[in-house]
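Posting here for the record, re: adenosine-5'-triphosphate.
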Amino acid sequence: MVNITNLHKKFGPLVVLNGLNLKTPESGIVAVLGPNGSGKTTLIKSILGMVVPQKGEIQINGERVKKHWNYRKNIDYLPQIANFPGNLKVQELIDMIKDLRGKEARDQELIDLFKLEPFLEKKLSNLSGGSKQKVNLVLCFMFDSPLIILDEPTSGLDPVSLIRLRKLIQREKEKGKTILITSHIMNFVEEISDRIVFLLEGQIYFNGTVEELKTSTGEKDFEHAIANILTENHA
Ligand SMILES: Nc1ncnc2c1ncn2[C@@H]1O[C@H](COP(=O)(O)OP(=O)(O)OP(=O)(O)O)[C@@H](O)[C@H]1O
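Prediction output follows.
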């Protein structure tokens, strides 16, 4: 569904993506991993058109995305840091995003899932980090788009909410969606991912299943397999 060819992105002298190639499967959960600063968010933002690469091509469902902003209507995106005005109430924010997107939304189902009903009349600035993240998850998932991009969805969530999120992501996958996800919580990634894509030095260093990653690194444990890549490459 997402096909990236020879993607280059520099910020001034800093080379972040250096000829990156990536083709995701038609559906399934792809985890984009890599050390801090390896370019995961830059890659995600390039797919969304929020970062403009110097070179390369991105296609979604066979269509080039460059200068065709309309494709974004079919992507649900959870940013790593979502900054909404703190004086907005949760319900006001949900209504505002629904108005902006102008699409049918399943917000109530997600409010119930993440037990957000008691927070709807609270201001965003008064919410805990985890509650804010749950609101962001509602905003992201409520439009039922075929491509979902989640930048650190696990951030700030307690174990019960993590389980709810995992089940939600798995249900979306069963509908045939493509889900790109970054997370630093390795057991979450291991449980949920169909493929692991590992970014290093601006390119995809590894692209395969969790089992293939364990085999290629000679490690039985997923976290150790990831650590193995990093230490082998002195990243
Ligand atoms: N707008 C920008 N201007 C300048 N440098 C940037 C910009 N955005 C990102 N960078 C730099 O590009 C590099 C890659 O950043 P990016 O956020 O893509 O990494 P990441 O893999 O998502 O990191 P993390 O795991 O810490 O979230 C970093 O060195 C970052 O400082």
